[in-house]
UniProtKB/TrEMBL annotation:
Subcellular location: Cytoplasm
Protein name, as recorded: Inorganic pyrophosphatase
Binding site for substrate: K19, R33, Y45, Y129
Residues holding Mg(2+) 2: D60
Gene: ppa
UniProt-recorded Gene Ontology molecular function terms: inorganic diphosphate phosphatase activity; magnesium ion binding
Cofactor(s) this protein cannot do without: Mg(2+)
Length: 187
C-alpha cells in the first residue's frame, strides 16, 4: 500500500439495489438480498481482502466512482477517511475513498476535498437503507485518514489471528460468539 492506495474488490456497483456479497469460502458472488426500500448504493461498494472487521466480514469500503464497474472487479482506491457506522449495535466501519485510476478524482486528496453534499448523500444512504427491515443504523461521524489507516492495520492483524478458524465451516459464527461474550466489537 503506497500513497494510501489499496485494492478493493467490488461487490456492489453504484446505482444497484441488489446487495451482492462475496463468499470467501465458496468464491461465489451471491445475492444476499434486494434492499427492502427504493434505495440504491451511492458509490462503489466492496471490501479489502485478508482483513477481518468486528462483524465477522472483511473491512468494507465505499468509494466515489464515475462509471460503475462490476461485482468481482479489483479497483485501486485512494483512501480518504472512514465512516464510523454502528449496525444493530455492532461496530461496522466503512472506509471511504475514490478511484485512484480516475483522473476526475485527482484533486481529492483528503476528506475536505470532497463536496459536502456527496458525503451527506452517502451518510444518508446508510442511515436509511435498513429502515424497512426495522434495523437501526447509527453513524458516529467520519474518521480522518489516520483513523482509516489504523482500521486497515487492525483488521489485517485480526484476520491473521483468526485466519485458520475463519476457513472452517462454522468458524465465523464461533468467532462472533466469542467476541460477543467478551463484549468486543460492540458499540
Ligand atoms: Mg461490514
Amino acid at each position: 500500500m503506497s500513497n494510501n492506495v489499496i485494492e478493493m474488490i467490488v461487490e456492489i456497483p453504484k446505482g444497484s439495489s441488489n446487495k451482492y456479497e462475496y463468499d470467501v469460502n465458496t468464491g461465489k458472488i451471491a445475492l444476499d438480498r434486494v434492499l427492502y426500500g427504493a434505495n440504491f448504493y451511492p458509490g462503489e461498494y466492496g471490501f479489502i481482502q485478508n482483513t477481518l472487521d468486528w462483524d465477522g466480514d472483511p473491512l468494507d469500503v465505499i468509494s466515489l466512482v464515475t462509471y460503475p464497474t462490476l461485482p468481482g472487479v479489483a479497483v485501486n482506491i485512494r483512501i480518504l477517511g472512514s465512516i464510523k457506522m454502528i449496525d444493530n449495535g455492532e461496530i461496522d466501519t466503512k472506509l471511504f475513498g475514490v478511484f485512484h485510476d480516475d483522473p476526475r478524482f485527482d484533486t481529492y486528496k483528503n476528506l475536505e476535498d470532497v463536496p459536502q453534499h456527496l458525503r451527506d448523500e452517502i451518510e444518508n444512504f446508510f442511515l436509511q437503507y435498513k429502515a424497512l427491515q426495522k434495523k437501526s443504523v447509527r453513524i458516529d461521524g467520519w474518521g480522518d485518514l489516520n483513523h482509516a489507516l489504523n482500521e486497515i492495520k487492525e483488521c489485517k492483524e485480526r484476520f491473521k489471528k483468526y485466519e485458520k478458524q475463519l476457513a472452517t465451516p462454522n468458524g465465523k459464527n464461533e468467532i462472533i460468539a466469542e467476541w460477543k461474550a467478551k463484549g468486543l466489537g460492540q458499540a
